Amino acid sequence: MKKLWMLAVILLQVMTAPNIPGACAAGATPAPQQQFNFDGGTVPASWKVSGGVTIDPNMNHGAGPGGSLKAPPGATAVLNVSDTDRVGKIDFWIYDDGSAPADPKAPRDGPTWGIQNADGTVETVGVLYAAYLSGGDSYAVGTSPDGKFLYRNVVYLGINRKKGWHEWTFVFDNTRGWTLFYDGKDVNANSPRIIEDNVKARGFTSIRFAGDTGADHPQTLWVDDVTVDVTGPLTNTGVPESRVMSTIPVPPGGYYAKWTNGPPKDPNWFPIGVWLQNPDRAAEFKAIGIDLYVGLWDGPTEDQLAALKKAGMPVICAQNSVALKHLNDPTILAWLQDDEPDNAQADGKGGYGPPTTPAEIVRRYNAMHAADPTRPVYLGLGQGVAWDNWVGRGVRTNKPDDYPLYAKGGDIISFDIYPVVNDNAEIKGKLWKVPFGVERLVKWTDGQKPVWNDLECTRISNPNAKPTPAQVRAEVWMSLIHGSHGIIYFVHQFKEAGGFIEAALLSDKVMSAAVARINKQIMDLAPVLNSPNVGGGGAVASSSKLVPVDVMIKRYRGATYVFAVAMRNDNTHAQFQVKGLPAHASAEALGENRKIAVTGGKFGDNFNGYEVHLYKIAG
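User: That's the sequence. What structure does it adopt?
Assistant: Structure tokens below.
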């Protein structure tokens, strides 16, 4: 009887306990489904709110009386779903009243709606304002480690703002990642926006709504009819981890051993070039560490080849009738395919047709080798290598499967992407897109061909953005660490950026000095860079999950080299574990005039955003 009485008490307590939807005790399994229509007059107890969040009975999605959650400027409303990241579906309605500040280019976060991860990272859709966005007219996705300054890391959605109620649906799946819907339509339907390499979110612990953060015409946010369906735990975060690069096999004698008239076989040589420059400036480029010209305007001509020969500057050039008269001239190192054949090609009528097909590029490659089998063929591809959504490919946009086929049309494969001067929010400021493309080319060539890449160092066509020396250095070493075996600087500035300057790098004394320092360090380390990676030579861990640190380990003449770079624009601390070291050693930070103690193969160092550290450990 006593047991039955105790059971009755327990049942009575459960039956009479207050029903708090969404309440999730630590370690508890979250409710499979939660629904909130905000018609009750008070904010549900399971929501954590601040800044004056209330229920507005005068704003209701749908017909009839009811209410909605009102988040005024500066307010937040958060529903905690779980202590660990989950997958599932979140659906809700947002009322956008269409208001905007007087200056929509002044940076700030307007009202936002989205999710939060277990590590605190916030990823939301919203009205975000910045010089490179159109927050007054359209929506973007913003990401930050704490929900602040979301406008600094964005993906432009291409969805125009329309006054009224609109449905937003977030679907998280362990296989497909994050799919976002607006008014029932996948935002990727017309053009991929939410793709693996430009968003962090794969799951969620909380749903988060936030009011405008500005004072200039601040906007109120209304939310209604929230439904949360949790389907299970997140098992695949998709967040890039810090990595030690694997071994990329180097052919015996190096990549250029089989070309009798090709690039130097000397391990102390490393290709550092400039694109399409006047041979009359060769001596000036040579003085800042440039050892190669790539491309000649309307050439090569006899005068161009003579000028380069006099300056001691080798060249990769087109295989025209003049060049074919110089088959024994060591000035010519390789033959140049037409640039960026993977982009839409001019149709001669003021418009553009499809890209040159891979089959045609391979046909031209074979013809070049038939004319001269002693030199390699250089193929330079466009930014579609690193950016599937690049519309400049026309009908072949979002067709990355083309690239392994293009790679058959060259012996040296290169590409370009310039994230600092790119105005598209999907690329702008994301320096890691450069090594992303490098790694793709290494994969698409099966590591059997040298991969080079072009880098920015001027405004190019952007009057409002120019790389800093630190950004150029980051792009260089990100490239090298991820498998690039040649660096080409794009040094032009075009009229859109304030006037055409062919050799804009030489005109910029600060940048040219910085590039000279970068190039000298590369050449000092050339024999190390030309040696194979030590695959499995160690491990690295970053204190911030948002900032992976990638590492290349080399061994040369008894010393161990650890080349490391922060892969995102934020601070972190990296811990390194390197195999094969003595119990006590010292890591010299090259070019920094400092040393770090290494104990048991372990040492640590701080990294600012996109910072590079190069270490040499003797013994």
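The CA atoms of residues 198 and 426 lie 7 Å apart.
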